[in-house]
Amino acid sequence: MCPLTAAPEGVPLQVASLGGGGSFRKRLADLGIVPGATITLVRSGAPLLLALGESRFALGGGMAHKIFVLPEKH
User: Are 40 and 48 in contact (CB under 8 A)?
Assistant: First the structure.
């Protein structure tokens, strides 16, 4: 498990856990970024660009550092 900021680009990732407070987790949940969701890091750097289904989101490094991911199991 690693923070999204340390994840490789272009690989499907499973959201393992979210750090931060309740409002942070709610904000991510509103975007569909919840534990168990599959996301792909499209571009690292600041801001990060990630894909969730057909949607694309830009996140700052501080937010991305609180999202912990694992390689998706097939």
Answer: no
This prediction has a pTM of: 0.90
Q: What does CATH list as the number for 2-71? A: 2.30.30.90
- Convert the pLDDT of each residue in 27-73 to its tens digit: 999 999 999 999 999 999 889 999 999 999 999 989 999 999 998 87
Dist CA 61 CA 33 (whole Å):
15
In the chain, domain spans:
2-71
DSSP the chain: -EEGGGSPTTSEEEEEEE-S-HHHHHHHHHHT--TT-EEEEEE-SSSEEEEETTEEEEE-HHHHTTEEEEEPP-
Cis preceding linkage at 47, omega within 30 = yes
